[in-house]
Amino acid sequence: MKLHASVTAGLMSITAYDAGFIAVNGRALTRSFLLTPRRLIEEWSPADFEALAEGDFLAIAELGAPIVLLGTGTRQRFPRPALLRPLIERRIGVEVMDTHAACRTYNILMAEGRDVVAALIIE
Questions:
Q1: 117: buried, middle or exposed (CB in 10 Å: 19+, 13-18, 0-12)?
Q2: CA angle 47-30-55, nearest 5°?
Q3: Where are the domains of the chain?
Q4: Dist. CA 76–CA 92, nearest whole Å
């Protein structure tokens, strides 16, 4: 699906996605990553939902955004509560959804000027 640009000049937005890739500002990515309106972090380690570890959530928490959108791949799956400890301890809200839904939601929140992190798993 191709997404159209809005009034978000200078910010990181999701411009397209399909099976196996997500495009950020027109650049196709094929591995899981973290995204904020001002930063793309390609070194996020989980290759799939089962590979999620507490350290992955610690990396998200260190970004300091009050909202996290966790895209869990092709379907919505909820991580064990113990994995979310770094976010819970910092009172960071987490919304869990499939990755494509997280892409759409991220773009809406980012366009509203919200401080948000999209943690997107690409399977």
A1: buried
A2: 35
A3: 31-120
A4: 20
CB distance 21 to 120 below 8 Å: no
pTM: 0.92
Whole-number Å distance between alpha carbons of 68 and 57? 10
In what side-by-side order are the strands of the sheet with 21-24? Answer: 14-18, 21-24, 27-29
- Residue 71: closest CA among 92, 37, 99, 111: 99
Give me the sign of the Cα torsion angle 27, 87, 52, 72.
Answer: negative
Fold for the domain defined by 31-120: Hypothetical Protein Mth938; Chain: A, (3.40.1230)
Q: Residues in the chain with pLDDT < 70?
A: 1-8
Q: How far apart are CA 1 and CA 79, in angstroms?
A: 27
Q: List Cα–Cα distances, 60 to 31, 44, 72, in angstroms.
A: 16, 9, 14
| pLDDT value of residue 37 | 97
